[in-house]
Amino acid sequence: MNKATTLARAGLVAVFFVCLTVAAAEPPTRITVTGASTIAPLMADVGKVYDAQTRKTRTDVQSGGTSRGINDTRKGTADIGMVSRAINADEKDLQSVLFARDGIAMVVHKSNSVGKLTRAQVIDIYTAKIRNWREVGGPDLPITVVSKAEGRSTLEVFCAYFGLTYRTIKAHAIVGDNQQEIITLGGNKGSIGYVSIGSAEFEQKNGAPIKLVALDNHMPSSASVASGSYPLSRELNLVYRAPASKEVKALIDIMSTPAARRLITEHFFTPAVLVSP
């Protein structure tokens, strides 16, 4: 072997190892998911499973409300939006995938003796016609009304069911995500709020001093949402812009796997039949 050949082969070997080094150093594909705080903890767990499988992706999950998920996905600043309600007619420019269902529970402090409310009582509480718990069979304690900020899908679903608007609600405290509301409810013995059943059950199981209240004799629970007997329920959707990248498609496809369905159940949601993008 002459010197020129030896040098050429050495050069090829060097190029080969440089290519390997570049490939090894190539950053993972980032998938940004934003939107409903109800869905965010679940998607964070699903993202961890997906990233561990691919070893080539990094799923970044951020909350901020359904409106943010819709807007970010439209602008392209998010690959997937989390939407904790049905898709509106003016949002059909985005593709949507229904992956689960959730309910919204009326929630009070754990120490409150009130165990059920009627639809009419909730309306009167949120419009300040009822101001003390004794008026609904509870303790002599002023009611602290907690509601959601504008742009939150939980607020939209709540208002639609009770025939209220953001302006007709007489709230003492306005909060953002479910966790913030649960902290608020757990810290005020006279408070009442409305929270995702999945989030409320999860936090209650982990020691939050809250109690889910029956609505018109329908007890809020994951089981009652699954059976269809609980009246205040909603869709949980993922939205994206078509055509979906292979990474986005793969992440959404994971939602129909047994592992993801177990995670959905563990987060106290009811899995839905999925249609792949």
For this entry, give a set of tags.
2 domains; alpha/beta; 11-stranded mixed sheet; 277 residues; D-Maltodextrin-Binding Protein, domain 2
CATH superfamily annotation of the largest domain: Periplasmic binding protein-like II
Shape: elongated
Calculate the terminal CA-CA distance, rounded to whole Å.
57 Å
What does the average pLDDT come to? 89
Number of strands: 11
Helix percentage: 25-40%
The major sheet is characterized as: 11 strands, mixed
Give me the strand/helix succession.
HEHEHEEEHEHEHEHEHEHHE
Give start-end ranges of low-pLDDT stretches: 4-8, 10-23
Total domains: 2
Structural class: alpha/beta
Q: How many H/I helical runs? A: 10
- Under CATH at level 1, the class of the largest domain stands as Alpha Beta
The CATH topology annotation of the largest domain reads as D-Maltodextrin-Binding Protein, domain 2
Which architecture name of the largest domain does CATH use? 3-Layer(aba) Sandwich
Strand content is: 15-25%
Structural Rg: 24 Å
